[in-house]
Amino acid sequence: MLRGFYTAASGMLTQQRRTEMLTNNMANANTPGFKADQASLRAFPEMLLQRMEEGGSIPTENGLRLPISPSIGSLNTGVYMQEGLPQFMQGALRQTDLTTDIALADIDIPVDEESGLQGVTFFTIQNAQGDIRYTRNGNFTLDGAGFLTMPDGSYVLSTEGQPIQLQSDQFTVRQDGVILENNEEIAQLGIAFSAQPQAMVKEGNGHYRLENGQENPVLPSAYANQDVRFDLRQGYIERSNVDVTRTMTDMMTAYRTFEANQKVLQAYDRSLEKAVTEIGRIG
């Protein structure tokens, strides 16, 4: 009976983690470039139950009896949330008419043969610690020194890996990512391509990084890959790809599943209470 406690408790913990993930998705429904997370649920290995009982006798001089253990069946021991993986589907574009807003629109992106999923293009940025990061959030701005930055202060990098400094927000971005100011080429936006974005690690503020230990510490340039076709649109931002209606439905399902596991746990608790207080009563 105690195994039922653990199975129901694992179900409650899983739904709690799933609800937290869905709540985070909902909270970022209006965050530019945000990619919704999807939960990956797995079951614990099943146990095979066998009954131990005395078997038949073997005709020997001293009368040998061997135990037998017929199989009863398998028992599932619960479920757990293995991880939350971001979905890199293209978000809708919203026009803002701000020259510092730039949206990445994937047009023709190769599909990875191993995973069967499409690759993704990213803006290349540099965080406050000087590390290379990647993002889909093109809601840029100019800091006091004229550098093109993200709202959290991260620098937007060029194809040369350098921060982009401008004199004002009166600049234009060509389709090939080249930034023009006063009809002069300033820099080319650093656009990277990841063939396996699911292998990247998600950080806060819409940042992604490569997992430690990978052979190539940085992503290759998207311009160098002839199979990658994308568009850069100035005056637009990519909206979050969170489906609010579906997320609300998933949250309600998670709540109901949590309550169902809770009721199972309460039923086990009442059964144990009855066993302790009534079955062993004397007189």
Q: How many structurally independent domains?
A: 2
Largest sheet geometry: 4 strands, antiparallel
Helix-and-strand structural type? alpha+beta
Q: State which percent range the strand residues make up.
A: 25-35%
Number of strands: 21
Radius of gyration: 29 Å
So how many helices?
A: 2
The geometry reads as elongated
Distance between the termini: 27 Å
Domain Flagellar basal-body/hook protein C-terminal: 233-276
InterPro entries: Flag_bb_rod_N (IPR001444), Flagellar_basal_body_rod_CS (IPR019776), Flagellar_FlgE/F/G (IPR020013), Flg_bb/hook_C_dom (IPR010930), FlgE/F/G-like (IPR037925), LlgE_F_G-like_D1 (IPR053967)
Domain Flagellar basal body rod protein N-terminal: 5-35
Family: Belongs to the flagella basal body rod proteins family.
